[in-house]
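To: structure desk
From: M.T.
Subject: fold request, one chain
Message: Could you run this one when you get a chance? Sequence is below, nothing fancy, just the single chain.
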Amino acid sequence: MTKTILMCTLLATALTGCQSIKSFGKSEKVNTKPASLTKLEQPISVLSPVFSVSLPESKSLKKGVNKKDVIDLQVAVVNGTVIAGSRSGVVSAYQGNQAIWSVDIGSPITSGVGANDDVAVVGTRTGQVVAIDVANGQILWQKFLPSSSLAPALVGNGRVIISANDGILYGLDLQNGEQVWQFSTQNPEVSVRGTAKPLSLDNQTAIFGTADGRIHAINPRSGSPLWTRRIGFATGASQVNRMSDVDGTPLIMGRYLYVPSYSGQLAGFDMSRGRLMFTAELASTKSLAMQGGLLFGVSVVGDVVAFDAMSGQKVWENNELKYRKLTNPVAIGDYVAVGDLDGVIHLFDSAGKIVSRSETKGQLTSLYVIDDRLYTQTANGVLSVWQSN
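Reply: Done. C-alpha cells follow.
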C-alpha cells in the first residue's frame, strides 16, 4: 500500500466548508464554516506592536512555491535576535526591524528555525538540513536526509536532532552535520504530520512525540532509548478515524509533563514519581500553555479550553472561535493568546473571556513568547513582534 501522509496543511484545508469530521472515533456531518467574530464590548489594550517586516523571498524559487500552502515556519529568538525563514528559502536575522543578515539556501523551507546561541538550523522540502552561523549568516554545513521535516530541529549538546516525516529521528553532529545515530518509530499509513520539535529535558534526555500516539525519551548524544509512553489511543474503523498523532511539542513545567494527542487524550505526568496524574479529553495537534495553575489547549475544531494543571478537571471552555484554524495558545502577561486564519490574535482573561484583539497580515500558524514579547510569522511571510503592556 502506498504510504499516505496527511500534512498539516491538508488538515487545515479540511476544516473548512461542510463535511464529515472525526469526533473521538465517530464521524458526523457538521458545518465547519469559520465562526464570525463578535465585537468586543469593552476591549482593553494588552499588546503593543514593536515592529513588523515582510520576509525576503528567493528570486530564483519564488515562482516554484505554492502560495496556497500553509506551512508553520516557526521563528527562533537568540539573545534578542529574531531568526526566521521564508517559504521560498531565505533565512534572515533581525535586530529590531533591521535585517543584520540574509542567506538564500536555494530550496523551499519546510521546518522552521531551530537554534542555540551559535547555530541556526532549517530543513527543506528535499530533505536538506542547513546549519547557519547565527552571528553572520554563513552556511556552516549542509546534509541531505532521506525525508523532509516540518518540525524545527533541536540544536544543542553537540547534536542537531531532526524529527523527519519518515518516522525516523536523526541525530547529526553539530560541528559538521555527519549522522551519528538514528531512532526509528512506528509510522502509520495515515497520519496528521505535525510540527512538534524534539524537546530537551536535560543533557541526558530529549523527548519527542510520534505519529503513532507515543512520546519517546532518548539520550541525545547516543540516540539510545530511555523510555516510551503511550498518549493517543485511536478508535474507529477507518485509518483516518484511527489517527492518534502526538503533534504538539510536549510541555514541561518543573517535574510535570503535559502532552495532547489528535485522538482526544490529554495526559499529565509527574516525572519525579514516574506516574500518570490524569487524562482529560482534548483532541489537539497544538502545543499547550500554562499560567497560574491552569493548562490551556486548543482543539482541532477551535475550542479554547482551560484545565486544572494538577487534576485535569476542565475549568472553562470558549467556543467562539470554532473552525478559525487556531494556533497554539501562549501565556503572555496575565492573558492567554491564540492566533487565527485571518491574522487576528485573540487574548483571553483568566475566566475565558476574550478581552482584546490585535491584528497582523495573513494566516497565523504558531505563536512564541519570550520575556513578555510575542513573536508571530504569518503564512505569507510577515514577521511581527509585540510587547505585553
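Reply (cont.): Residues 286-389 form a domain with the Lipocalin fold (CATH 2.40.128.630). Let me know if you need anything else for the meeting.
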